[in-house]
């Protein structure tokens, strides 16, 4: 099953609760939360307090993506705030196996994230421990960027790696996802599609999410 995960980075924070309820009613599967610290990426966004607020208004899984240095220090806070799954950047984790184990011990799903320039070989000895892998198809830090085309090759290679190892690891994609490219991205191997501005920037969230699903089916 293919899943749609609206990123609240592009939501109207003056009415965040209403925005979350709107995408939930429109058919969203997950709510994606981008956490940035101003160090690993050139932007500062939200912390556990926002995740806690999101949890109070939705029963959907909350997908927390930590684009931060020293993620181990903050994982328990996000779990306690209501995260359903937490993904960490390969580039920030000195002991990635330990970090994934820490997330799993908190009884939430564990994910690994690769930036556009990070090779899949970085997953060689951790893939079996991850519930999902998030491929960044833009350089992280800001919403509304253009999809990086060679992410499609990365998706195909990752799908083959997962299949060759007989794993059930999900593949998530984040960055520049739109109605124009979602079918191709799906065919390349993605299971979960993060979309921010494409959804929250549209006039009708349900119409946009329905169009995404139609394109995925056609692809």
List the helices and strands and how they pair.
Elements: E1 3-6, H1 16-25, E2 31-36, H2 48-57, E3 62-67, H3 75-81, E4 85-89, H4 96-105, E5 109-114, E6 132-136, H5 151-164, E7 170-174, H6 182-188, E8 192-195, H7 197-200, H8 205-218
Parallel strand pairs: 1-8, 2-3, 3-4, 4-5, 5-6, 6-7, 7-8
Helix pairs in contact: 2-3, 6-8
Question: What does this entry look like structurally?
Answer:
The protein is an alpha/beta fold and 219 residues long. Helix content is 35%, strand content 19%. The protein is built from eight helices and eight strands. The protein has helices at 16-25, 48-57, 75-81, 96-105, 151-164, 182-188, 197-200, 205-218, and strands at residues 3-6, 31-36, 62-67, 85-89, 109-114, 132-136, 170-174, 192-195. The protein has an eight-stranded parallel β-sheet with strand order 1-8-7-6-5-4-3-2. β3 (62-67), α3 and β4 form a beta-alpha-beta unit. α2 (48-57) packs parallel to α3 and α6 (182-188) crosses α8. The longest helix has 14 residues, at 151-164. The protein is globular, with a radius of gyration of 16 Å. The two termini are 14 Å apart.
Structure described in brief:
The protein is built from eight helices and eight strands.
Biggest pleated-sheet summary: 8 strands, parallel
Rounded to the nearest angstrom, the radius of gyration is 16 Å
Outline, from the CA principal axes?
globular
Terminal CA distance reads 14 Å
Order of helices and strands: EHEHEHEHEEHEHEHH
């Amino acid at each position: 099953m293919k899943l749609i995960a609206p990123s609240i980075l592009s939501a109207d924070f003056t009415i965040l609760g209403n925005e979350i309820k709107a995408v939930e009613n429109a058919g969203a599967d997950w709510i994606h939360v981008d956490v940035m610290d101003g160090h690993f990426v050139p932007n500062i966004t939200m912390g556990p307090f926002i995740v806690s607020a999101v949890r109070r208004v939705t029963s959907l899984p909350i997908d927390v993506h930590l684009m931060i240095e020293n993620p181990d220090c903050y994982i328990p806070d996000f779990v306690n705030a209501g995260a359903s799954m937490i993904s960490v950047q390969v580039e920030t984790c000195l002991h990635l196996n330990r970090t994934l184990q820490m997330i799993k011990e908190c009884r939430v799903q564990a994910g690994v994230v690769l930036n556009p320039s990070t090779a899949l070989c970085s997953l060689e000895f951790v893939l079996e421990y991850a519930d999902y892998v998030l491929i960044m198809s833009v350089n992280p830090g800001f919403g509304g960027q253009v999809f990086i085309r060679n992410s499609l090759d990365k998706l195909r290679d990752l799908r083959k790696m997962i299949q060759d190892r007989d794993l059930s690891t999900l593949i998530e994609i984040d960055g520049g996802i739109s109605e124009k490219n979602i079918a191709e991205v799906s065919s390349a191997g993605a299971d979960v599609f993060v979309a921010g501005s494409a959804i929250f920037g549209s006039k009708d969230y349900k119409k946009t999410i329905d169009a995404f699903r139609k394109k995925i089916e056609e692809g």
